Amino acid sequence: MESINFIKGYGKVIPSEEDPNSSQKRTSNHRRRRIIAISSVIFLTIAVASLSAALIHESTTESEESETQPQLSSNSALKTVCSVTLHPDSCFSAISPLNTPPISNSPLHFFNLSLQATIHEVSNLSSLPRNLIKKDSPALKDCADLFSEAASQLEKSAALTRVNPGEKVFTEMKISDIQTWVSAAMTDLQTCIDGLEETGSTAVDQLKTRVLKSQEYMSNTLAILNHIQSLYDKFGLTMP
Fold first, then answer.
1. Cα separation of 119 and 125, whole Å?
2. Whole-model pTM?
3. What are the residue boundaries of the Pectinesterase inhibitor domain, all occurrences included (predicted)?
4. What's the pLDDT tens digit per position in 17-76?
5. Domain boundaries, the chain
6. Which of 42, 91, 120, 150 would be 220's cystine partner, CB 3.0–4.6 Å?
């Protein structure tokens, strides 16, 4: 019986008789694994937080750049458009204030703004002669009529670029008409100056400065129109 009990009990470990050192080792290993697991979680959390912060910073930077880029590209496009004119500085200074905020970088957009600036400048001319020379002066009346006629011709030019959806903006006939009307407006202003010079009016020098500015604007507008196809090609756009 004793031998049988010995066999049955072989290999079993009674809890109360377990080796204390073995229990301590298991406890130590358990703590070590727990510390490693916690450290891994902390490291992963820090890594994810750092990656998120980097992504947020990159997204914010890209957003800020996208907000400033349109203005930069618009100015660059405007300089390219004005480079085809004889007076690029006056072209840029006339159009730039009207291009805020930037709406489009198309040559048509800049052409319309150039024409708008020209109309505004010519319209302001009509009030000048009355402050400079006698009201009963034939030269005054001629200049007032010529300024009014020039403004009307420029308005007709602007109307041609306002089209319905699907309608072509720049046909050969429209381009020809605009060229004719803007050129005629330039001639009207020159006729005014020539008339004042013939009468020896002292208003010539004061008027001439403003008239020359308007003529520069007209010249710029015509130059943009004359190069409209090449500008569209340069920008990689299809002319409307």
1. 10
2. 0.67
3. 73-224
4. 445 555 554 545 555 555 554 455 444 444 444 444 443 444 443 333 334 334 447 889
5. 77-235
6. 91
6, amino acid identity: F
